[in-house]
Amino acid sequence: MKLPPLLVYTVLRLLAFVVPLGILWLFPVFREYWWLAALFAALIGMSISLLFLRAPLSQASREIYAKRNRDKGAPDEDAEDRLAGE
User: Under 8 Å CB-to-CB from 20, ≥6 apart: which residues?
Assistant: First the structure.
């Protein structure tokens, strides 16, 4: 069973945030200043995402584009067919 690319990308993005947050909470300073740990985890997660998650992002983007444009026919071909039939 193949998972949808958007789900894969979302889970990987969440892991890129949650894992650094968990590691930062191991330090006593960040337990007191939880908002600082969340800020650093967000920055680390964004960096990880930009560096390592380019392929899953591309796959998810392609799937979204294909779903949005699936119902649209080629209007030029339809117009040509109507003109050729007349």
Answer: 40, 41, 44, 45, 48
The tens digit of pLDDT for each residue in 33-80 reads: 999 999 999 999 999 999 999 999 999 999 999 999 887 765 666 666
Contact 40, 25 (CB under 8 A): no
What span, in angstroms and rounded, lies between the C-alpha atoms of 37 and 63? 34
60 part of a folded domain: yes
The answer as to whether 54 is a domain residue is: yes
Q: Report if residue 27 sits inside a domain.
A: yes
pTM of the model: 0.74
The count of domains in the chain is 1
Is 15 inside any structural domain?
A: no
